[in-house]
Structure formats: C-alpha cells, structure tokens
TrEMBL record:
Pfam families noted in UniProt: DUF1758 (PF05585), Peptidase_A17 (PF05380), RVT_1 (PF00078)
UniProt protein name: Reverse transcriptase domain-containing protein
Superkingdom field: Eukaryota
Start and end residues of each Reverse transcriptase domain: 250-467
Amino acid sequence: MKKLKLEPQSSQKLTISGFGNTKLITYNSKQVEINVHLMNGPAKRIEAKTMVHITQKLQMIELNTQDMINLQREEDNELRLPTKWRTPSVVMGIDYYHEFVKGTANRLKSGFEVIDTEVGAILCGKGRIAETLVLTTILTANTILTEYLTGQDVDRYWRLEQIDIEPADRETMESLAIKQFSETIRRDEDGRYSVNWPWKTAESRVPYNFGLCLGRLKSTLKRIKDDPTLWEQYDGTFKQQEGLHIIETVDRKQNGTVISYIPHQPAITPQKETTKLRIVFAASAKDRNGDSLNNNLLQGPTLLGSMCGILLRFRSSPYVLIADVEKAFLQIGLNENDRDTTRFLWVNDANLPADGNNLIIYRFCRIPFGVISSPFLLAATLENHLESEGSETARKLLKNLYVDNMMLNANSTDEAIRLYTETKALLNSAKMSIRQFTSYNYEFMKRIPTEDTETITERMKVLGISWDPIKDEIVVGIPNTCCDLPTKKEILQFIAACYDPLGFLIPIFVEMKVFPQSLWKNKYGWDDKLNSAKQREWQQIAEKWTGGEITHLPRFAFIVNCSTQSHIFTDASSKAYVVAVYVRSLKNNFN
C-alpha cells in the first residue's frame, strides 16, 4: 500500500487461509482502490484488500513486445528466455479475472501458453525452460494470476462466523470460543449460570458411541460388583448427583438434536484406609471413524491467572487465605440443547445384565470434568461473574483465581474475616460454595465455621509448592536423583520433576540442565545407557544434591510498612545466562 501510495477507504479484521491450508491468520486489513492501466482504453479500477504477506517469490519472465513476437515464432520444445524470481505485490482473484482475460490461449511447443489480455499478453502454464531443463510453472507478464478462489470461497475464509473447516489458528479459535460463550451464557432466577459447548463448526460429527459405552460399562461392572464398598460409592455418587440435579435420567427413545454417549471408569487409590473413588469421564473416546466429543469442541483460551504472579502475591502480605470452590465444574449448568451430548450409562443392579429395565441412561445438567471445553467454561463463567459484581474483593479474587483455587491477602485478622464473608457471599450468589479455608492466622481459623476450614497439617500444597501453615514457611526441596545408570530420558524426567515456579533452585540446576545438551551432541537415544565417562560426569553432578528438603523460607517476604528497592544483576557464560532480581525491604534506615 505504501509503495503504490494508496489511501485506505476502510479497515476491517479479516481471517484468511492459503489455498489447501487449514491454518488461518487474523489481521487488520485496509480496503483500497487500484487503477490498472490497459493496453487500449482507460484504466480499470479494482477494489483490493491489503495483506500482511501474499506469498513467497515466484519464478517469472519479463517480456517486451519483441520478446512476445519472437516467442510465438519459437519452434523449439524448450523456452529460451532467462527467468527471474520476484515477490508478487498484487494478487488478482477470479472475481476480476474475466474482466481482463478476453482472448483464447495459444499453446507453445515448450508447453507454455500465451493468453491475450487487456494488459498485454501473458505467458503462463507449465512447460520446459532450456536454462534449467526442468518442468516449471510460470506466472508472468504485467499481472500475476495465482490461487483462484471463487467468491463463495473468499467469503467463507474471510468471515469468521461462517468457518466450516477445522483451522489450527489458535487465536482465531480462542476468539470463536469466547464469542459463543458470550452469546449463550445464561443466569437463572436462583443465580446459577449455564452455558453451551463452544462448537468448532455448526455441523458437528459427534459420535453416537452407545455400543462403546455399553462395552466399557460391562468391563467396569466386572471390576466393582464383587466389592460392595466400591459399588456403593460408585452408585451412591450418581444417586447423590441425581438428587442435586447435576445429572438426570433420560429415555433412550427421546431424540435430541445431537446425541452422544460418554464412557466412564473409576479412578481408585487403594492405599487409602477408606477407598477414595473418583469417576472419570472420557469425552475423548473415539469411534471407529476417529471422532469424539472433544474433537468437535473448542478448547477455548486459557483464562487462568498468572501462576507466578499469584505465588509472588502469596508472599506479599502478613496473612494469606487459601480456599477452593467446591466441585467447581459441577456448579455451572449446561443448557438444555447440549445436554444430550453428555449421556452415559449405569445400572440399577450390578449383578444383573446391563440391558432392558436394568439399564439407566443419564445425562449431565452441569458441565462435567473431562470435556475439553470445561476448564475454559468454568474460568470464563467465574470471570464473567466477578467482573459483573465489580467490588474490590471481586477484583482481588479475579487476580488470584487459578482454576478452582483462590488466594487472598490480608494485613489483619479483621480484614481476613471481612474478605472471608464477602467471598462467601460473592460465590453463593452464583450458587457456588467456597470452602477449605486455610491460613497461618490462628485467630481467623477459630472465628469461621468449622465446615469451611481445612484440617491444618505441616505440609500443604499451594499451586504445587510446599507450605507449612503452622510455621508459615515455604519448604524448598528436590526429588531423589535417578538411578546410577540413567538414560537420557530418565535424566530429563528427573529435571522435569524438580518443580520450581519461583526460581529458588535455578542456581543449583544449571549444571543439571546443561548436561543433557552433551547427550544430544553425542547422539544418545532416549533409552541409551550412558557410557562410563558420561556416567561419571552425571554422578559428580547428582552427588551434590541428595533428594529431600533443602531449606525453609519465610512465606512473608517483606517488612510491614516498609519501603522496597529492586536490585537487578545479569551475567552470562558460554553455557548459560542469568538475570537475578533481589527485592530489599527497608524500615527506619535498617534492612
């Protein structure tokens, strides 16, 4: 646009894909007008849209009038003209093609064609060039012709709301998920929110999966029918959920717009004194065509707060309150028109065949965990609710919310009580319950109802880091190093297991993280044992760091009513570079 000195007529956001490619790009495009000079007659004005990038360089031939005369007399089977590579500046589509191309094509012996147009003769097609003696496609002359799309194709690619393919462009799909969420979220008279699934396309390919689910159910029943406790927990979970209107029974003959069955299975932790059961729903289960419910849904954007930001704020006040939303996913309703996509099977009696009157068909009235869109819908609903409330406490929750975990900062017991009361009211108004409050503040824990408190232990997890709420300390540690004869895979698994979101362990891990680079350079496979030299090198590194707790740090990192300074240091070597930021607290001229 700058090169041709064009003035934009208007601007709009477009989504476009290259021909034959499912990846879409979204960008701001300017509408412009271009005058194309004709061989005979006035210039023709065409409308165009600007693009960030059209295509790579194309092979072309620049021809003058004499070249064209000589070319049409050419008797050789090869084109004897030099070619050049040029980057196209303008692409003309099929909507203007016939306004310029009037004549018929004249095929040359080389295989190329000469077409007479309003802007001069065009050499195009496929043929042989003497210079390279290879089969070459040429796009040449004053106008470049490429990638013909019909008007309908262009409209479909450029209008986001009518996309009917499965593009891979993340930003576009996230925008589409947010758009569908905003258009379908509802709130009933009791205050509960309900949503629709965000679909990839209007015409879904959701599998029926009844047979698959029936087979999985029979396998599950074989596992649990001889364990009365496990059966009671499994069956009791569904009965309780039915009573709370989380699930509901449905007639198999009842026809929905889209019907799909989801298999489920138990996740059991037998080491527990009392068997802990979690029922896992597999919305990613595929039919023989490779389709699943999850394949047809948009995952949506990640609307989680910054984990690092939350953990830094976790250390920034004298007291913190940690809590979570009870059964958070199951507190968001699923609108009626999408419920039949979440059917599943159960039985009245585990000792009878899973058919006839013994077979129960349930469907979810809330969004189940295990569906790819559920985390997005939960986060978006909570964000929508807290933003609409607009209070200072709601804004604090919004910043410190991570999935169903919440963290709040307080400077005093009274402030902690106020935040607890306001948070309970905020969530209750949306038919959600916040519970399992934990704090180092003993007075706060005494003053709130016991049913809202978590049992305090010496080691608790806050977004993956260990916290001792009794001493109010962060516990820093590393796992035991892997075996004496490790493979490249085992070393990388060990390094990945060292969870350190706040960077406490960065200095001691430099050697460990640099070491695998030498394994790649020496072309070690994933499961190859290290040779003796590499074993010694690894053992020297690993022996420095035995597994277990390394140090305890005070959770509260500042002094009350102090000023702070930031001191930043940087350094680099041939193996690593580092930035270290120290925050210094000062009060009454003392550190």
